[in-house]
Amino acid sequence: MRNSRFLLPPVLLWLSLFLVIPMLIVVGISFLSRDTLGRVVFEFNLEGYRTFFDPLYLGIYWDTLVLSLLTTVICLLVSYPLAYYIANASPRVQTWGLVLITIPFWINFLIRTYAWVLLLRTQGVVNSALLWLGWIDEPIQMLYTYGAVLMGMVYNFIPFMVLPIYVALEQMDKRLLDAASDLGASRWKAFLHVTLPQSKSGIMTGAVLVYVSTSGMFVVTDILGGAKSTMISNIIQTQFLGARNWPFGAALSVIFVVTSLILILLFNRAMQARHQRVGEGRA
Amino acid sequence: MIELVQIEKHFQGQAVVHPLSLSIKEGEFLTLLGPSGCGKTTILRMIAGFEQPTDGQVWLAGQNVTDVPASKRDLNLVFQHYALFPHMTVEDNIAFGLKMKKMPRAQIKERVDEAAQMTQLSALRDRFPHQLSGGQQQRVAIARAIANKPKVLLLDEPLGALDLQLRKNLQSELKHLQRTLGITFVYVTHDQEEAMMMSDRIVIMNNGKVEQIGTPREIYARPQTLFAATFVGENNIFSSPEGLIAVRPEKMVAQREPGAKKTGVIEDIQYLGSVHKLLVQLDGEPMKVTVALDISDERPWQIGEAVGVNWNDKDEVMIEP
């Protein structure tokens, strides 16, 4: 890996230009004040952080955490069997499975999400079909519900979970399963003691990707949740664009980033507790 | 201990193992020897239960286990590339089979201690496989298998990935281990020297067929087929009106006096320390023969020199083509 040395300066430059400096600006603004016109003025102020502890915002923050965790768990439950199936299928099925999973990425995110509106609204495809079948007498309110938001999130982020798990499962040495079976493990036990631990890196990557993407998402809540469900990102967006309260928006962003990092760290710690020295597991 | 009754294996219509019957005795060290692709690993995998024979039966300790899955057979396999669990320590690897059997914790510890000691791994129990050398990984693979005290241990080219010196050491260790444990070993290798050194009996295989079964001594001194005669050790093959004849190089003498069975010209001289060989191009025949000279034979030979090649009739072995 001698090449990596030459890649270091551009990577550092990239990171500082597009990640570190913007982050520092946000952190800086979060400690400043604003004037009546919504302009940021250089005056130290903790008002943004104080406002966060208003029960209203705490509640929204809590809802965001719950929705993100729920999305992550559902994504995992749906994606693991799917990734497992694809990883163990014939090469042809593998190729097709991966293509089908990535196809939604070729379509613009907004269009994909608006498509759900067409499906879920009162005169939408699903309600019409159910009415036609005679299973329901009047349209069900599906759009603008918590369920619609949750489904939109799960739908959008399933590939983020499937792909890393697929990679981990696909790279696993299948002879390990022979070895487990030789040592008396049933198929279920072999899965539990060999396959699952071997795919842990994929689960961790997928979970972090889905969690971070969900908790930072405001488009899905806007489109599928209507005005009823709000996530912390919706508030941040409003503070910057609508309410023009940049310091408060910045404070919320900082709190959001810090808590997310802490959660991810705790999660990694928990997953690695037993095998701290394994590293990648495939040396 | 193991009875293979007319087992055969076809893959996509191709016979990989032709019908084969074999009886392996309790406590025996039996080696399946042959070049890669000869079907020896397939036989081992059929005994282990990873492959289902297309036809025939596998009996283990008086029981027909043909339809018993690998996880329920009372034998263990040492895999060619070890197949150690990378996310487990040496200790957890060794204990895996015992945990699967739901053995009490105290007993597991005892067994693991014993297996680790026997394979000299006691100091490395907390390491992970990627922190071990090839030879140490090999030991873990063996410890993981013998901790289960199986009736039979199957070994699939267990030393194939190691360098020569380490192989030599581990060969003696394995042989010693087998004597100490007194369990049946079925060993697969393509290395004829390894097979000769370790085995009680050798099964020589080629193209899915058994060429010969016998003790190392029988196989070396009395090869039955052309393949057996040339795969194990060096041999000179002559055709005679009765068929093919094999004569070992060390049974041949080189002489300058007339009256030799064959004459030829020395094409090359190889000095290998313990042996000294002449490569002789025979007159009027396309073939070359190798003569291994007695180490006490100090006569100087030269490349290009005419030489007579002789041997005793009793050292001729009739072989099948």
Largest interface: A-B, 25 and 25 residues
Binned, the helix content of chain B reads 25-40%
Query: Could you say which overall geometry of chain A the principal axes of the C-alpha atoms support?
Result: globular
Query: Count of helical segments of chain B?
Result: 8
Q: Termini of chain A, distance in Å?
A: 15 Å
Give the overall pLDDT of chain A as a whole number. 88
Number of strands of chain A: 2
Q: Provide the low-confidence segments of chain A as ranges.
A: 276-283
Q: Report the strand count of chain B.
A: 18
Which structural category do the helix and sheet elements of chain A fall into? mainly alpha
Helix-residue proportion of chain A: over 70%
Number of domains of chain A: 1
Which architecture of chain A would the CATH scheme give at its second level?
Orthogonal Bundle
How would you describe the oligomerization state of the chains in this entry?
heterodimer
User: Which CATH class of the largest domain in chain B is shown?
Assistant: Alpha Beta
